[in-house]
Amino acid sequence: MFKFIGSVIKEMKLTTWPTRKQSVIDFFMVIEYTVFFLIFLMIFDWVTQNGITSAVQYLLPFVRN
After folding, report:
1. Positive or negative: CA dihedral 49, 50, 54, 60
2. Which residues of the chain have pLDDT under 50?
3. Cα 9 to the chain's mean position, in Å?
4. Whole-angstrom Cα distance, residue 22 to residue 3?
5. Which residues contact 33 (CB under 8 A, 6 or more apart)?
C-alpha cells in the first residue's frame, strides 16, 4: 500500500500543470465550442422541425384524396 502511495506522489511530482493563463484560455475555448455546437444544434432542430411540418402540410391533401 505504501509503495503505491509513494509511486503516486512520485508521478504527481513529474506532472506539469497548466499555468493560470493557459487554464483561462482553455476555459474560454470550452465555452466557445459549447456555444458553437448549441447554435448549430438549434439551427439543425429548427430546420428539421420546419421541414417536416412543411412536408406534411404539403403532402396531406394528396393522402386525403
Report:
1. positive
2. none
3. 33
4. 33
5. none
